[in-house]
Design goal:
The complex is a heterodimer of chains A (275) and B (248). With 275 residues, chain A is mainly α. Chain A has one domain: ABC transporter involved in vitamin B12 uptake, BtuC (Orthogonal Bundle), CATH 1.10.3470. Helix content of chain A is 81%, strand content 0%. Chain A is built from 13 helices and no strands. Chain B is an alpha/beta fold and 248 residues long. Chain B contains ten helices and ten strands. The termini of chain B are far apart. Classes of the chains: A mainly alpha (275), B alpha/beta (248). At the A-B interface, α7, α8 and α11 of A face α2, α3 and α4 of B.
Chain lengths: 275, 248
């Protein structure tokens, strides 16, 4: 554990924990509100934004947040306006963002896969700064406060959006809010996990947590724990094997998901009943 | 008397379709009225209910519910309507208990940020008790049978303490005994609370026993609005074959 004596690794570990918690938490809403393609779209818009930052030699975090926020603000109303499912609009935004990302990376003044370009593509442990940590802690606090305040509405929309509408809940602002929040979380996670794998943090922990429990309130706690555990395990694996941290996190969270599917108590009970 | 539900020349078109699902509907229901809507498949029965509660936007005409324009005040109107959708089935892994789902019925009236009170929970449990499903309160809803899930959705509508009940085939998954029992219970709750109630059904025996008004729909239009026995005669006359097949 000699690594943890260095501030850069301490920061990275803390960053991993907060990113894992946030991804796991937001992921539950993304999965249960059936906004999965938004996760992909957001991660790639942040990726395109970060690539623009690298091309213009400005902080990629700022451009990633701007791109994510712009995509988030655009997707919901565009889907409503075009009278198309949100998934269709996100698929279009996804291809647009990927195209932009590769064009921006082509214009990057740095040669080949320099550390900054590589960090945008598949993440880097050493890239987390003190400022990133402050942003992550602030985002964690704001997200928890908003989820606590609007829990009743979010809980009902996650069950069934149409029934929530039938009960008199205005679902649109909550859906837009969740899309926007996803964009910001993705932008802040990008440095660590990388633009190509960041959505693993949204889907894998929440999908794993859903395999174990029948109570949404408990899932909301379990999913961030799985997210943080995946990130911590990915962090150490990356250090010891000297491979990209984003890939390690994605692999470990996928393994946890596979384990959860195979050993899910829910599934076992169902098989027993069917048997 | 003031009408509680009033539709004037209302037509509703689904997105991407040219032909209205319901057309030129004129319908008035007063406080405490109890009506069944019958008709063959694709007659527009579900569309009619979803148009009344504002879930589907109207293409033409005007709807007033509780003296409010549904187009403008849809959300406010829906807070006063207990709605049971057709064939609502839940995924077996859905992480909600039956009580969670019944309690959700009250959320629209609590207001944003507000929390459900002890009274809200008591009302939800009371509604479950009326439907004899209080022992299922803490069971995951996905683990319940189709009939039990349907009772949960009816309890959700009743727990809301609405002024209007819109129930779309609420008895389709119930056994005949439960069907009779719950049908009587709904009639009793409607009567005691003076609720305006519309039930969509395929069950012709039901309507003769328990209502005073029957609305017959076919091809998106109301073809009759009369007392039950007359409605049955119309169904016979119009030879609504699909409808007759379903009722054997």
């Amino acid at each position: 554990m000699i690594y943890l004596e260095y501030a850069v690794f301490q920061r990275a570990l803390l960053g991993c924990i907060f990113i894992g918690l946030l991804g796991g938490l937001i992921g539950v809403f993304v999965v249960k509100m059936r906004l999965s393609t938004i996760g992909y779209s957001m991660s790639h818009s942040a990726f395109a934004g970060a690539a623009l930052g690298v091309a213009l030699s400005i902080d990629p975090l700022i451009t990633a947040i701007i791109f994510s926020a712009a995509t988030a603000v655009f997707i919901g109303p565009a889907a409503d306006k075009a009278r198309l499912p949100v998934d269709t609009i996100t698929s279009i935004a996804f291809s647009l963002n990927m195209a932009l990302a590769f064009i921006f990376l082509t214009f990057s003044p740095q040669i080949g896969l320099s550390s900054e370009v590589a960090s945008v593509l598949w993440g880097s442990i050493v890239s987390i700064t003190n400022r990133d940590l402050v942003y992550l802690i602030a985002l964690c606090s704001v997200t928890l406060a908003l989820i606590y305040l609007f829990w009743k509405e979010l809980f009902t929309i996650m069950f069934d959006r149409r029934m929530a509408e039938a009960d008199g809940i205005n679902t649109k602002p909550f859906i837009y809010f969740m899309i926007f929040l996803t964009g910001i979380v993705v932008a802040l996670s990008l440095k660590l996990v990388g633009g190509l794998l960041v959505y693993a943090l949204l889907f894998n922990p929440s999908s794993s947590a859903l395999q174990y429990l029948h109570d949404m309130r408990k899932i909301i706690f379990l999913s961030p724990i799985i997210g943080a555990a995946s990130c911590i395990a990915g962090f150490f694996t990356s250090l010891f094997l000297d491979i990209p941290v984003g890939s390690c996190i994605a692999l470990i969270s996928t393994l946890i998901f596979a384990f959860s599917v195979i050993f899910s108590p829910k599934r076992r009970r169902r098989w027993k009943n069917e048997g | 008397m003031t009408p509680i539900i009033e539709l004037k020349d209302v037509s509703t078109v689904y997105e991407g379709e040219r032909r209205p699902a319901i057309r030129d509907i004129n319908l008035t229901l007063e406080r405490g009225e109890f009506a069944y809507v019958i008709g063959p498949n694709a007659a527009g029965k579900t569309t009619l209910l979803e148009t009344i509660n504002g879930l589907l936007p109207i293409f033409k005409g005007r709807i007033q519910v509780l003296n409010l324009d549904v187009k403008r005040y849809g959300r406010k109107v829906r807070c006063q309507i207990g709605y049971v959708p057709q064939d609502f089935m839940v995924d077996p892994g859905e992480p909600y208990t039956a009580l969670d789902v019944v309690l959700m019925g009250r959320y629209g009236n609590i207001g944003v940020i507000g929390r459900p009170s002890r009274e809200d929970k008591e009302r939800a449990i009371e509604a479950m008790r009326l439907l004899e499903i209080e022992d299922l309160a803490n069971k995951p809803i996905g683990k319940l049978s189709g009939g039990q899930q349907q009772k949960v959705m009816i309890a959700r509508a009743i727990a809301k303490e609405p002024k209007i009940l819109l129930l779309d085939e609420p008895f389709s998954n119930l056994d005949p005994e439960s069907r009779d029992k719950i049908s009587k219970l709904i009639a009793q709750i409607s009567g005691e609370n003076n609720l305006t109630t519309i039930i969509v059904t395929h069950d012709l025996h039901q309507i003769v026993d328990s209502c005073s008004r029957t609305i017959v729909m076919n091809s998106g239009r109301i073809i009759a609005d009369c007392e039950p026995r007359k409605a049955l005669a119309i169904i016979e006359k119009w030879n609504l074959s699909d409808f007759r097949r379903r009722n054997g």
